[in-house]
Write a structure and sequence with these properties.
By secondary structure, this protein is of the alpha+beta class. The chain has helices at residues 15-21, 72-80, 98-107, 120-136, 153-164, 189-197, 202-211, 213-219, 263-301, 306-312, 339-350, 377-388, 409-427, 445-448, 451-467, 471-481, 485-495, 500-507, 511-525, 532-544, and strands spanning 13-14, 27-31, 39-40, 42-45, 57-60, 85-89, 110-114, 166-172, 177-180, 224-226, 235-242, 245-254, 321-328, 355-359, 362-368, 395-399, 442-443. The relative contact order is 0.06. Mean pLDDT is 84; it is low at 1-9, 138-149 and 430-437.
């Protein structure tokens, strides 16, 4: 983001008006030494580049959060440059540092925090839209009621209907109806079905695309007029923009009578008023999605209060549930591979009540347990693994155990992740001569047997191994640095219970070559595989080395 210096002619807007625009709760006012009516002229980023005047700006301080005493100096610096207020990042559950509060109080600047689930880009858009909306409400952009400052899209739709003499829908870029005016008895069938369905019907969208109307709408900066014909009444349409970005559109249809003479001018002014309202709608929608994602992530990974996360997701914290984890079978996805996107849709289709989190190259699915085993976690894991195979790289899916409520979700998730890890290790065996351990690409704990406990033991043993030393450590470290030939040979030998012929076949070498390598381990490093303790340590070491 680039620091902006507001033009002197821009009128200031009271801080309370800006906060009233934030109905999504992404901003919180901590203190306002000069009162809630302190004027704000613009939005700027304050901790970048050379110092510039920030007269009357609300300054986004993207450095230390409010909980850090280190944020006090940027607050003072912004005040010295004329800022009327500053916004810091909030750390959820942690109060602002006393030094920061004191700095804002002494400097006389308003101190606000940005919710942890929001981001700076959205915050800047919110604040600039609040300024634009407040200024639009003072002018003559739309006569009459809209000049009083339409506070919602529904109010704006009603005002535009009054001054155009038509029926109004305000739609987003996906042609979903966000607001509409009241319809008269003579409203056409298309208008009624659009409003009742909450979006433009698919057949109509296809028609608009074929006719070029959609392209014209999204590229035009003026009102588009469509004369009345046998298929419907006269229509006026305009795209709503914020700079170059299209936010949505406003549609006016004759409601049984011709539109008024000044309808096109009223629609142009309405588009200016609609822009900040559509930005607010978009931010509210994206903020809700981001809060849900953070709550789901916190619930799955055990970060924060599990019961609170469940309530945030609209789930009962005492309801039984399980976690399913799916990963691509291929380590690196091919260009254009949309396996995980398809699996997410598949999971939702399995049961609408599931919650899905895309985390890097894996999918985590929270599954409320509402039915029998045929709709349970293992069934979903099988469904995801099987559906991903045709035409794609395929997937591995692990089903965690059913837990009695939100506090147990983390344990179910951890086990599902571990099961997928075991499946991936087994899948690697398929390319080797001995594929007896390779199996289905999906499983629960019973399906992987003792391998699950072995994985847990290895995780617990890793810190002990990494801190140790001795002949086995020397062998593994030296050989891995040289390419790992000896470690792979030891792994094959131990996995085949000391059967030299089978181990050599797995390694694709002559049995005498393998015998030579085992002898080298004894002679060079003093590792005696006939000793049970040494054999156990080597087994752990080669597993931990991967």
């Amino acid at each position: 983001m680039t620091s902006r210096t507001p033009a002197p002619a821009q009128p200031s807007v009271a801080l309370r008006e800006i906060l009233a625009f934030d109905d999504g709760g992404s901003l919180r006012l901590l203190l306002a030494p000069a009162g809630h009516d302190v004027g704000v002229r613009g939005v700027a980023v304050g901790d970048e580049g050379p110092a510039r005047p920030l007269d009357g700006c609300l300054v986004l301080l993207t450095g230390p959060p409010s909980a850090s005493p280190g944020a006090a100096d940027p607050v003072r610096a912004a005040a010295d440059r004329g800022a009327s207020g500053v916004v810091l990042r909030e750390v959820e559950g942690v109060a602002a540092a006393p030094q920061v509060l004191a700095a804002a109080e002494e400097a006389g600047v308003a101190l606000l925090t940005r919710a942890e689930w929001a981001d700076w880009t959205d915050t800047a858009a919110l604040l600039r839209s609040a300024l634009a909306c407040a200024r639009a409400g003072r002018g003559d952009e739309v006569p009459g009621p809209a000049a009083g400052g339409a506070e919602s899209l529904s109010e704006l739709a009603a005002a535009v209907a009054e001054y155009t003499g038509g029926s109004i829908t305000i739609e987003d870029t996906r042609l979903r109806v966000l607001a509409h005016s009241a319809t008269g008895p003579d409203a056409d069938v298309l208008r009624r079905s659009t409003i009742l369905g909450g979006r433009v019907p698919d057949w109509r969208v296809a028609e608009l695309r074929r006719s070029g109307m959609l392209r014209a709408l999204w590229t035009s900066r003026d009102v588009i007029h469509r004369a009345a014909d046998a298929e419907g009444p006269e229509r006026l349409i305009i795209a709503v923009r914020s700079g170059p970005e299209v936010l949505g559109s406003i549609w006016v249809a004759g409601d049984g009578h011709p539109l008024r003479a000044g309808a096109a001018d009223a629609l142009r002014r309405a588009a200016d008023v609609a822009a900040p309202l559509l930005v607010r709608h978009r931010l509210r929608e994206s903020g809700a999605a981001r809060r849900s994602e953070l709550a789901l992530r916190g619930l799955l990974y055990g970060d924060g209060d599990a019961r609170t996360h469940a309530w945030s997701l609209g789930l009962s914290p005492d309801a039984a549930c399980a976690v399913v984890v799916a990963e691509r079978r291929a380590a690196a996805p091919a260009p254009g591979d949309r396996t995980l996107d398809a699996l997410a849709l598949q999971a939702v289709a399995h049961r609408p009540s599931v919650r899905v989190l895309r985390d890097g190259e894996r999918l985590l699915v929270l599954l409320p347990v509402e039915a029998g085993p045929e709709r349970g976690a293992l069934a979903l894991a099988r469904e995801l693994a099987v559906s991903a195979a045709p035409g794609g790289t395929g997937a591995l899916a692990g089903a965690g155990p059913v837990v009695s409520g939100a506090p147990g979700v983390r344990a179910s998730c951890e086990e599902a992740l571990l099961i997928v890890r075991v499946l991936r290790e087994r899948a690697g065996v398929e390319t080797e001569a001995d594929s007896t351990r390779a199996g289905k690409p999906y499983a629960d704990a019973a399906g992987v047997g003792p391998s699950l406990d072995v994985a847990r033991v290895l995780d617990a043993a890793r810190p002990v191994w990494e801190a140790g030393n001795g002949p086995v450590h020397d062998l593994v470290r030296a050989d891995l640095a040289a390419g790992g030939e000896l470690v792979r040979s030891l792994a094959a030998y131990l996995d085949t219970s000391g059967d030299v012929a089978r181990a050599a076949a797995r390694l694709v070498v002559h049995p005498n070559t393998l015998r030579y390598r085992l002898r080298r381990a004894r002679e060079r490093f003093g590792v005696d595989l006939d000793d049970p303790d040494t054999r156990l340590l080597v087994t752990l070491a080669v597993r931990l080395s991967g």
